[in-house]
Amino acid sequence: MLKTSCSVLLGLFALSTASSSARAQAPAGAPAAPHHVWIEAEYLAPLNGANFSFQQVEATTKGSWALAGPGVAAEWTQGGESEFLSAAARADEPGEVVMGRDVEVPAAGKYTLWVRYADYRKKAESFGVRVVQGGAKAGDHRFGDKPIIDELDPMSLLWDWSFGWDSRAVDLQKGPARVEVYTTGPTEARRHLDCLCLTTDPKYQPIGREKPDFAAWAPLRAIREAAVKGGGVPDVEPLAKGQPGGEIPAVWKITDRPPTVVWNVAKPWFEELKRPDRIDVPFGVDPPLTEEFIKAFRGKEVPVYGHALSGASWHIPVYPEVFAAGSPYLDYLSRHPDKRFVILLNYGAPNWPPGTTDAQKQAVRQNVKAQGDRFLGYIAGESIAHMSHDAAVLDAKIAAAKSRADVLAALREVYTAMVVKGFTDYYGAPVTPEEAWRDVISCLSANMESHAHALCNWGVARLGHENTGNSPTLARRLAFMRGAARQFGKRIADYQSANLGDSATMFSREAYFYGASSRNILDNSYDAWAGAGTSWLLRDYLLFGLAGCDVFYNEQGVDIFWKPGGNAAGDAFPVQLSPKGKVAETALKLIGDKPRGTQWTPVAFLLDEAHGWSQERFHPGSFQFDPVKNPAVLTPGRHEAGIRGWFDVAYFPAPETQNEHATALRQTFVNGVFGDIFDVIVTTPGKTQTLGTYPVVIASGEVPVSEEWGAALRAHAEAGGTLVVAADQLAGPGVAALELPAAGAEAEADAFVWNPSGERLASNTYRYKAVPEAGGRVLATTPDGKPVVVAFPRGQGQVIVVGVPLALGLDERPVSVLGPLMHHLTQGLTPVKVGGDVEWVLNKLDDGGWLVTLLNNRGVLKPQHGVNPTNHREHQPVTITFNGKVAKSQEYLTGADVAWQAGEKGSTTQLTVPAGSIRMIALQPG
Q1: Which N-terminal residues, if any, form the signal peptide (predicted)?
Q2: Would you call the peptide bond into 186 cis, given omega within 30 degrees of 0 as the criterion?
Q3: End-to-end CA distance of the chain
Q4: CA 273 to CA 250: how far, in whole Å?
Q5: What are the start-end ranges of the H helices in 354-473?
Q6: Which of 602, 539, 651 minimizes the C-alpha distance to 224?
Q7: Mean pLDDT, residues 790-811 taken together
Q8: Is 135 left (phi over 0), alpha (psi -120 to 50) or beta?
Q9: Which pLDDT tens digit goes with each residue over 469-525?
Q10: Partners of residue 530 on adjacent β-strands
């Protein structure tokens, strides 16, 4: 992966002298970028308790601003909160109940203060916002006294309130400021704030979830527009050298077989297995349809459930019966030695008969152990293990923590004690921590990223995740999972829910809750029109499958078959595959029956093993804790902003699609300009082995570096790798091994000159420490010629130093130079280029071929409730270029042969991906 010739390295640095002379005449370029300070309400403090839109007043917290998100139907039908959370205070609070946050104003000037809040119909919700600088009020304004949303607005009529924006003018000085939101005394309605923004941009007139046009997006937008209109990301000088057609590193292969798809089964199938004429495949059906289903399919082939890759999922309460000696399920396993299974832990425990002895528990456990690796583990949805931990002990350790590393250590200690005790009770015999963790499949939804590598390090054999329709950028979350699985030698699992916010897509008659009834309209509606929908579900199967998923678990699992009916149509239709079932049938064909190979991801982000970051979490602090528990350690700040910033660059236009109303496809599945080519690894001791498999490694956030990791990073560069680090990012004894240059004096600038093109890039105002250029190649400077991005050769590779602390501006947003830098870093690292407005994934097949998967994420806008017609005008023309000759090629979904045209730069094919659909093109070089 990292072989680089000396001549190539000389070429990379030969332009250093020319770059120096070019800096003397910096181009005039674009005007200065506007200034913005964005503040999420949930990042204000203190927040105590809860105050949700669906709660009765007496159930909400009094005496403080409180957490008000994530929202329910009222919020999601309005497109969602700006991120994932919000804050609220009761209507009966007295004056001066305050929450606030310290910010930095990047420049003096006239700003507009924008506030998004809930405007209650025919009621006032008065509150104030003040900005304090130097001990004096720079601005103090009231909001909520007058309506900002018309009383006949559909959302106001439905919910009695609607999110809206209001603004005030504020004169600010450059420097530190404190933004405070306060109650103005009792008012008529609860005060519910989503976000605030200070901006100098008169063009920013927000609606919905819109954030300002941050300066970093402009160069990325230009790259993307060129990629969509042309044949892919424009060619530029490559900064890193890899082997775009090389062999897959052995550690990247996290699966050696097609995935298993398990379905919830229960008493009906257990009883069916006792019959000689049984349905001998695992099934779970909506209870009202069970009898009709059995009648329809007994003695016949059963779609989906009868697929060779289908398996069973048993709920933990029936564990004692299902795995007891003589069980018909154990007989089934003996007759089907290839079948695998899981046990679901959610909200239950083994239902042992009274008087059960430890010896009897041990016997049941031995029956499970006898199945060997056919038992995949215990699925835990949205939880570590659905067991009780000692919350008081954990809280005390969190309060005493001096660092994020202390928090991670506390989590490991308390959760390990939890799973050891839990499984000891289940098994009737002591278990070791290794035994307890091995079979746990934790499937966190929010907060997965902060625990992904930690769980693998603690000992799980499979790392799971519950994706949802409101969760941004699945490709990024899979980068955490796939990177963790490769780094720790584990496998991954997909816990499918088809959720969007508090709703889910369900094709059941009686199970769960129905939003069509006013009885269930406020929250947690599960019905055929709710949730993420079927197009979202297919993409979930595909991206997890291509990432190497070992097992899929469908959360509801009783609606693969349905019986549609109607008031006029009647109820005489047969039991048949539901829309979910049709999607499952397609997925089993595409990622079960067809080769999927191994995903090609040549770029890794390196994070602190105790980074604590997740984009979505139920509390705003690190590791999803309430920051009140330990403000000095848990309060989100520049470390987390630095992580988020690099990911926003890597997966652009993700930050722009997140400005849209939340719909199932547009935020979860993103047409990333550079493709889904990234992994995430962390600085866990003893786990440096995968580092050398990535041609490019980018440090993100604050990263402590041990001597072991310092030596490994140096060896990675010397072997031909590229390491990217920013000022104020690395700390610890291992940093010395990198021989980073001493930083210069700190100064400020608001633009860059990108030397490879000579382009001037307007930027958010940033501090920088000039990077000494001796021995390196200057890639970017300030407008007055100070080096701020410099590449230093290290053996066969290089270390690129970005002299901007954590690569962030004063506004805690990424600086604009990161887009061009990423463009040059990724140039030439893949053997294919994809042009078109699609998401693309690249897999290397075991036979030496390649699989290019294209997802058209346009044309299907699935809101939380309802179904919109497909906009078929959103079909997308796509051009794929392969850097060699193609001997044969086929598209998986249609089975059609694909023709390629040979040219100077390789072989090219053009196709159209229908609106909301997918295509998978396999090719054999030749």
Answers
A1: 1-24
A2: no
A3: 21
A4: 41
A5: 358-369, 391-400, 404-427, 433-438, 448-458
A6: 651
A7: 98
A8: left
A9: 999 999 999 999 999 999 999 999 999 999 999 999 999 987 665 656 788 888 888
A10: 865
CATH 2.60.120.260 fits 36-199, yes or no: yes
Residue for token pair 């400021």: 177
DSSP state of 317: G
pLDDT at residue number 246: 84
The structural domains of the chain, with segments of one domain joined by +, span: 36-199, 268-599, 832-925
> Could you tell me the two tokens for 309?
């890759």
pLDDT 10s digits, 98-135: 999 999 999 999 999 999 999 999 999 999 999 999 99
pLDDT of the residue at 301: 97
Token digits of residue 498:
């088809």
**Minimal CA–CA distance to 601: which of 233, 882, 248?**
248
* Residue 205 in tokens: 């007139």
Contact 845, 595 (CB under 8 A): yes
* Distance in angstroms (rounded) separating the CA atoms of residues 239 and 488: 29
More confident residue, 222 or 516: 222
Q: How many CA atoms lie within 13 A of 509 on its CB side?
A: 14
Q: Residue 576, SS3? A: strand
Phi, psi angles (nearest 5°) of residue 383: -160, 160
Q: Are 496 and 473 in contact (CB under 8 A)?
A: no
| Cβ atoms of 320 and 327 closer than 8 Å | no
**Residue 592 burial (10 A CB sphere; 0-12, 13-18, 19+):** buried
Distance between CA 285 and CA 287 in Å, rounded?
A: 6
Average pLDDT of the segment spanning 875-898? 98
Whole-prediction pTM: 0.96
Asked whether the beta carbons of 485 and 463 are under 8 A apart, the reply is: yes
Rounded to the nearest angstrom, the gap between the alpha carbon of residue 833 and the centroid of all alpha carbons in its chain is 24
Q: Which two tokens stand for residue 868?
A: 């919109």
- Cβ atoms < 10 Å from Cβ of 301: 9
For the chain, the average pLDDT equals 95
What is the pLDDT confidence band of residue 7, given thresholds at 50, 70 and 90? Answer: very low
Query: Quick one: pLDDT band at residue 556, thresholds 50, 70, 90?
Result: confident
Q: Kindly list the distances between the CA atom of residue 793 and the CA atoms of 496, 818, 925, in Å, as whole numbers in the listed order.
A: 46, 20, 34
Q: Report the alpha-carbon distance of residue 294 to residue 269 in Å, rounded.
A: 9
Number of Cβ within 10 Å of residue 14's Cβ equals: 11
Alpha carbon distance 475, 477 (integer Å): 6
Residue 377's closest CA among 450, 422, 314?
Answer: 314
Are 201 and 213 a contacting pair, CB within 8 Å?
A: yes
Distance in angstroms (rounded) separating the CA atoms of residues 476 and 634: 23
| CB distance 76 to 499 below 8 Å | no
pLDDT score for 26: 44
How would residue 411 be classed by pLDDT, with cut points 50, 70 and 90? very high
Count of C-beta atoms within a 10 Å radius of residue 604:
24
Return d(Cα 51, Cα 67) in angstroms, integer: 6
Residue 776 gets which letter from DSSP?
S
- Looking at residue 511, its pLDDT comes to 65
Phi, psi of 587 (to 5 degrees): -65, -40
* pLDDT tens readout for residues 41-65: 999 999 999 999 999 999 999 999 9
What letter would DSSP give residue 637? -
CATH of region 832-925: 2.60.40.1180
Q: Between vectors from CA 304 to CA 300 and to CA 305, what angle results, nearest 5°?
A: 65
Quick: pLDDT tens for 524-553.
Answer: 888 999 999 999 999 999 999 999 999 999
Report d(CA 301, CA 304) in Å as an integer. 9
For 92, 225, 455, 477, the CA distances from 660, given in Å and listed in that order, are: 34, 19, 33, 20
Q: For 333, list phi and psi in degrees, rounded to 5.
A: -65, -35
Tell me the mean pLDDT in the region 433-454. 98
The lowest-confidence range among 205-209, 290-294, 555-559 is: 555-559
Q: Report whether 431 contacts 410 (CB < 8 A).
A: no
